[in-house]
Amino acid sequence: MHIDGVDRPYYAYGLYQAALQARGLGIKRISAYEFGVAAGHGLVIMEKLADQVATLTGVQIDVYGFDLEKGLPEPADYRDLPYIWQKGFYTMNSNVLRKKLKKSTKLVLGNVSKTIPKFIKKDIAPIGFIAFDVDYYTSTRDAFNIFEASDAKMLPRIFCYFDDIIGTDEEIISEYVGELLAIKEFNKKHNHKKISKINGMFHKRVIKSAWVDMVYVMHNFKHKKYNTYIYPSSYRQNKL
User: Fold this and answer.
1) Is pTM beyond 0.90 here?
2) What does the alpha-carbon distance between residue 98 and residue 207 come to, in Å, rounded to a whole number?
3) What's the helix, strand, coil split of the chain in %, to 5?
């Protein structure tokens, strides 16, 4: 797949890699998510890319969008970066958006602290890719409850994109606020689940782009299929 030639290549990368992993595990359908949909441009792109990836890999992808609908909530404290974002930013018109989406793409509306615990009890295809774009530390922290789903509802390695870990010069993003703080605390809290960058990924890309530093993977080391060998074509041993 020509990752760098599409709109939102980080979505394409996550979807494609998740589908390849699923295919190696013999899984025929996975699910992908956008947390923080707003007007819906990203979700429309995600569903189109999901169709392309399905054609290339044979793995079908269900697409979901989570959003509060009425815009950002009130910032809790400094960790939510109120000098950047304020209550009411990024509202959604769900009626307009639904007309632009496929019927198979589902919107889950409401505060993620309440919607996710109910959602992960449903019969969903294994989670393969998640784009986090809820801006706040508190919202990102609550969105991480998606990782409390059962093993049957997650791939052992879930590809993630974090939209707000690289900001403008004015935003001054650090590990003590926002998404980076949420990641740090998640890793501290969980012994066998870790959200980590893909080491050396920047050097493997032909086109060097900032989004490479925004792609992570949630490793579920205790997942029943984490140790399953899935890349037989990658084994190479030179003969003497």
Assistant:
1) yes
2) 34
3) 40, 20, 40
